[in-house]
């Protein structure tokens, strides 16, 4: 057996742990049915409402802390939150469950008669709760916290909490039952005192608990939200309220800054870190901000995928994309944000990670996939992309890679437009299609002698066809444009040109089991493929697998090297640690230090060069 209060009794229940709220819900439902109206005099109802508000507090602080376009310059710890930390903190709300169940037992216990009377307001209770917080909760928590950092108590109970390298609002709830009970006592003592004195009220419970959670989330947000000027103007204030910098110093160094919210007790105990205020000033002024080495310029795919951003729900962004019915009620909100972005937004930072000392960021153009096909939107979208490139150039970014539709041939010639308009760019503009082609080509089995290619005259289609014909593989190129076909065929070596064959109908591929898809396929079009066909894809969004007797490849992608740091979100349709090939192409360009742009047509001779460079740097096929 493990140490008492070191593990959660409902750990094995998984998501079924939320059934622990069942008795409260049942009691409220029963009272509602009995009275015919919402039982506002029921503590069970108020505890459930408080649960919702507390969860919302944690979620809003989490979202704010991860809105890099607002908070990037004021982040205390510059590292990212990786998948390991996310998984460890997955059940952060165990603390909230425990506190809700304890509160329900107290509210329904005959031993606490003062709780039975539900007053909406009593100013005496607020004053008494403040007094008890300052004189009881703060010093008690301080000494309990210091005790948790000594000897076996730390290794048994508190080390788990400190195992998270970067604090987040959700980290505030991550820990063992013993730590949760200490926090429960800290938040509950002022309330117990107020009710014992006959001055408790419903508003006090809501106000005190939500303020307690608010301050905890603020401290763990990893974003400095208190101006250093406030402390300069009122020096005594620094002993009355802690800051995210103050808490982060404790979390990393573990031998200082033990207070709950008031550094006064660290001052009395001699445990204040002397760098707390100096570092807080530096962070508040944005002095720790860093220029990224590489930027992946993405765009939003659709309204549903927009709800999977890292500053949304961690349980969505940290897992491979899938349609979640639980998000359906938020669709109108996401749609409203899409409309607002059309009128008011500009390119913004979405996520980041580190690779071999280099900072890699993902920026997003505030446009959605379908908007790229609106003729009147073309000029505005190109302007957004151009401004992002110029911003990156001004900042000193080394490489910027264009994602998906941001490099659309009809939109800007695969990025050629921007390089032509700004010939003196220092930032290297990369479409990443060379590595995309390499990934697709290396997926094709070595014994294949014939392939069927749709999207055959696109940049990728052209490169794939020219590469395969050199390998003496017959390529059935689906296109109705004889002129474009002949132009590509003439680029091939004379001895390889006959391996390129123009076809105009899907029926021509009835005996070909290797389809390379660069254009959306309907169920009717897919039916022409023989049983056992494998569909390789470079079409966005990927085609839907209608055929059970066929197999479907994913979009071209590569797994980042194992030494990537701070990666905690998944790209659209990708698994953890996997990025689209055009993203990986930019990464390779940055790691190699190549000083040329990669725009426009794909240089077929460089496909093998880029592939070998990717493997050399530890990127692997996904």
From TrEMBL:
Pfam families: CER1-like_C, FA_hydroxylase
UniProt-listed GO biological process terms: response to stress
Membrane-spanning segments: 47-71, 123-144, 180-206, 325-344
Catalytic activity: a long-chain fatty aldehyde + 2 NADPH + O2 + H(+) = a long-chain alkane + formate + 2 NADP(+) + H2O
Alphabetical list of InterPro entries matching this protein: CER1-like_C, Fatty_acid_hydroxylase, NAD(P)-bd_dom_sf, Sterol_Desaturase_Related
A molecular function GO annotation: aldehyde oxygenase (deformylating) activity
Protein name: aldehyde oxygenase (deformylating)
Very-long-chain aldehyde decarbonylase CER1-like C-terminal domain boundaries: 451-621
Membrane topology: Multi-pass membrane protein
Fatty acid hydroxylase domain mapped to chain residues: 131-271
Enzyme Commission number(s) of this protein: 4.1.99.5
Record organism: Urochloa decumbens
Family: Belongs to the sterol desaturase family.
Keywords, ordered alphabetically: Endoplasmic reticulum, Lyase, Membrane, NADP, Transmembrane, Transmembrane helix
Gene Ontology terms: cellular component: endoplasmic reticulum membrane
Subcellular localization, as worded in the UniProt entry: Endoplasmic reticulum membrane
Enzyme class: lyase
